[in-house]
Amino acid sequence: MAKKGVPLSEMATSDTHGEDSPYFVGWKVYDENPYDAASNPSGVIQMGLAENQVSFDLLEDYLEQHPQEFGWGCGVSSFRENALFQDYHGLKTFTRAVALFMEQIRGGRTQFDPQHIVLTAGATAANELLTFILADPGDGLLIPTPYYPGFDRDLRWRTGVNIIPVHCNSSNGFQITLRALEDACAGAESMKVRVKGLLLTNPSNPLGTTITRPVLEEILDFVAHKDIHLISDEIYSGSVFSSDEFVSMTEIVESRGHQERERVHIVYSLSKDLGLPGYRVGTIYSYNNEVVTTARRMSSFTLVSSQTQKMLASLLSDKEFTENYLRTNRERLKKRYEFVVEGLSNAGIRCLQGNAGLFCWMNLGELLEEPTVEGELSLWNLMLHEAKLNISPGSSCHCLEAGWFRVCFANMSQQTLEVALMRMKDFTEKMKAKQMISSL
Amino acid sequence: MRVIVPLQAVVQGRGGLVLGSLIPCALFYFLQFYLRRNRPSSSSPPPPSSASGSNLPELASIPRSLSRGLLSPRGSFGPARLSSRGTAVVRDDDNPYYVGLKRCADDPYNRSINPQGFLLLGLAENRLSLDIIQDWLVKNWKESLLLDDEEEELSIQGLATYQPYDGSMDLKTAVAEFMGQVMQGSVSFNPSHVVLTAGATPAVETLGFCLADPGDAFLVPSPYYPGWDRDIKWRTGVELIPVPCRSTDNFSISIAALELAYNQVKKRGMKVRAVLVSNPSNPVGSLIDRETLCGLLDFVMEKNIHLISDEIFAGSTYGSDKFVSVAEVLDAESFDKSRVHIIYGLSKDLAVPGFRVGVIYSYNENVLAAASKLARFSSISAPTQRLLISMLSDRKFISEYLAVNRARLHDMHALFVDGLKQLGIKCASSSGGFYCWADMSMFIRPYSEKGELKLWDNLLNVAKVNVTPGSSCHCIEPGWFRCCFTTLTEKDVPTVMERIQKITKSN
């Protein structure tokens, strides 16, 4: 077997896919030994996956009441044209439904024009598509830290675009400051990297917090001043614990009479709020016609199944269902969050004050042997292999302060969560005891 | 091929099931027409009529003040410009292949409802056998989509959560078996060599990313499928170098021509990384014979490059020649498999392009590893996966479907080619695909690309027949046109011929 085979591309052989990072390594360890209350009670509990299963029963109820619509989509008799439908404008009923849903999430405070919606197979594809469209290879995208580890791969791998971190820290709850933005820009300039845009995640992953209105205003001013684009990934917008605590970038744009709208683009998806990541439904919403046209053409590489569009159109258009779903989902997430924070607090662990998302941002700085990335990773490793908990280390999220970790709480049952919190408590007590002994 | 599905697809059905929706659909269609005529203009192309046939109220373009206010007069000269990649895409407007499709989208032919509409001979979509699939679905949809294995209850358990990005193993297995059936048992496919993607479009682009670096080249025997110019070149930075084939030998692939092209490209300082072929050929419809496949394999081995064989029409053959997959040749002979990759999908043979199911079949572990990671950007929707697993596992149904579909393709092809013959138009010899490759060179003036495009334009705008001109396919001989016949019924053929004759007579 000739070792030196036919050559592949740089891309195929590089590791920009980032799947060797702890974020993904932890997943693998989990996959090999997954926790199950009955069959594998000593397995690894997955707290590194931001998936929402708390409101799944609501979807199942809907299915029971509307098997035709949700199951197939208003009758099989229209199968023919559905099966042939590959127009990348998307099914009209579906894009309208998505627009309505996004409006509902924002309490009707902004309007979404379905003609400006571009569908993609997931938000992963949406973010990558925007990056291709707004930046050339070698250009830079500003991203506040800590950020979702997947961005390193999704935004850079095929696009050749660089990520310029905008460093935030705990002194102000990791809020984005003008200073941090300016510093990042200056850094890019010194490396001769042209900055083309700023990508925000609001609510933030991994922080679990919403960005406040004044900060959003400041950010819009900043991007206008620098003449760059602004991508607001609002994938968790329906998972804010209290609906009036979320301000969308669209609201800021509208409040300014649509000034600067040409540079603002929203990313959304049904994977988090609706708990349907397997369906692969993402969207780009842009006020910029050229971006919409280009994104639509490029969406040929990542279209949403026509069958899926059909199935979800009726669900998302059902106002009664969506209102109830959004409200119930928020309540349950809030409850979960409070339960987790209390549990962690009993274990002597502090969390950042959060108000959204499927996770909390906790601080284990006290347990680190040394306040460095190495210290953090060694603690993470211990937690993975001893406590059998897979959580995400802050360094994977490019957090400059060692000791922060993201803990997901919505992808498991209440019982599993209780087991996880107990393990966390045992682990921290053991670690603290160890520390005390070694300091004697 | 990006085009809306006109509502008449429902009407053209063979099953009695669809007649029940004829009247409401017709009314619905007229309503759409009326509303569109009265809609304020917007800068983006009008959304096509969504033929979902659903009973949700179709709020066709309520003029919201927002969309009016979003007309941007200055485009990319305004603030925050697009990247150069983005700009290239937004300007990529002129290819007749796409122009034709867009033109037809709003006014498609329907024998009863819109007999003056555009005839969609530029769209390689198979509507001949969808009734068979529909019948299966009517009987099986509940079980196939929603039944929980254990519970016997309707459930979406297992559909909602994250799935492997390159497709579930169950679907890979079902697709691998389907491919074996499609190729009539001559070769069997291993599911662990399969990466699934949302359509063949991302499949071929993914191979572009994996096998070549920006600035490298693929050799592509021409004429070739116009979509590749976008699918492969847009984002990967890979160049496609057409290697012209000639009508004198029915546009067969010539290894000598490949050799010549290879050396020419090398002289230009570019690196050739692969040869890309389609088999059955799009747009010619011919099959690559075993000898040529061996020749190709020898060639790529000698140059140490890859071979990509797009076999998406493998199940849509109808001639007397038997289809031979490159996989079959690899099994039989001792060629280096690690450089061979097959593109496949369900859009053609199973006629479900809307569901977005494409396949990369590779013997190269490293390519599979990279492609499966890249699949995260174009994964297949879970409920669609489940539905197809169920459908494809009904092997009896599938084999009946494939047989009937082939027979219908055969008949329609014969009818169509004969019709063209009556007009004095000869077609290349073809055994597969949804189209014929017609020689209309005697009707073009001058004998050049310009003359060809003049004829294309007349056919489109005067006769309202959309065909694909050979120049869009990089055909070196002017006057050839790809004419798809699978969106037609038998009764439509005389209409098609009449309209074509209108133009050819005046030439």
UniProtKB/TrEMBL annotation, chain A:
The cofactor(s) it depends on are: pyridoxal 5'-phosphate
Q: Which organism is it from?
A: Musa acuminata subsp. malaccensis (Wild banana)
* Record InterPro entries: Aminotransferase_I/II_large, Ethylene_sulfur-biosynth, NHTrfase_class1_PyrdxlP-BS, PyrdxlP-dep_Trfase, PyrdxlP-dep_Trfase_major, PyrdxlP-dep_Trfase_small
Q: Keywords assigned by UniProt?
A: Pyridoxal phosphate
As for family, the record states: Belongs to the class-I pyridoxal-phosphate-dependent aminotransferase family.
Q: Which residue intervals define the domain Aminotransferase class I/classII large in the entry?
A: 45-422
What's one GO MF term for it?
A: pyridoxal phosphate binding
Q: Which domain of life is it from?
A: Eukaryota
Q: What is this protein called?
A: (wild Malaysian banana) hypothetical protein
Matching entries from Gene3D superfamilies are given as: Aspartate Aminotransferase, domain 1, Type I PLP-dependent aspartate aminotransferase-like (Major domain)
In the record, biological process GO terms are: amino acid metabolic process
TrEMBL record, chain B:
Needed cofactors: pyridoxal 5'-phosphate
The domain of life is Eukaryota
Question: Which GO terms of type biological process are on file?
Answer: amino acid metabolic process
* Entry annotated with the keyword Transit peptide: no
Q: Which residues cross the membrane?
A: 15-35
An example of a GO molecular function for this protein is: pyridoxal phosphate binding
Q: Which Gene3D superfamilies match?
A: Aspartate Aminotransferase, domain 1 (3.90.1150.10), Type I PLP-dependent aspartate aminotransferase-like (Major domain) (3.40.640.10)
Q: Which CDD domains match?
A: AAT_like
Tell me the keywords, alphabetical order. Answer: Membrane, Pyridoxal phosphate, Transmembrane, Transmembrane helix
InterPro entries in UniProt = Aminotransferase_I/II_large (IPR004839), Ethylene_sulfur-biosynth (IPR050478), NHTrfase_class1_PyrdxlP-BS (IPR004838), PyrdxlP-dep_Trfase (IPR015424), PyrdxlP-dep_Trfase_major (IPR015421), PyrdxlP-dep_Trfase_small (IPR015422)
Taking every annotated instance into account, which residue ranges of this chain make up the domain Aminotransferase class I/classII large?
Answer: 121-500
Q: Which family does it belong to?
A: Belongs to the class-I pyridoxal-phosphate-dependent aminotransferase family.
Record-given protein name: (wild Malaysian banana) hypothetical protein
- This protein's species is Musa acuminata subsp. malaccensis
